[in-house]
Predict the structure.
Amino acid sequence: MGSAIEALPFMNNLLNARPNGFDSMEEAVEWHVTTNTILNPNSARVSVPSIIQFKEGESPPYQWRTPLRSTAPYWLSWFKGLSSNFLATRAARLLVLAGTDRLDKELMIGQMQGKFQQSVVPGVGHMLHEDDPTRIAEILVEFWKRNDRVVPVGIKKVGER
């Protein structure tokens, strides 16, 4: 997830391009769709209300629930070591990527060594699970079916004690 670390210097530009808020929830949904933040309008209508909150007396009244800029001191720690932790996990692993994503060196080597299953979903953006929920569900079911039969020694299946 080194590509995420490489993108961190551009986060402020991304945040600067976001409006401070919206005059209505409908405007917030429309912004997410027209900026290709979420490509699926139906999904945007469902998910955007959970990230926007109404603040009476504020202008604009519909504002971001999470002030992302205030989390900047933690951004590097969120991603540092993530690839190695992912590869060290003692379980079947699936990495689902948008068509434009790329792997860092550590993940590329791990993928070539067969340490995880990788699925690339074309035609989606950052919110790939929202942009193409049917395809993501198919990938998850295929992964579950493939790994339901293969349980390495010492690793418990989900739900086992």
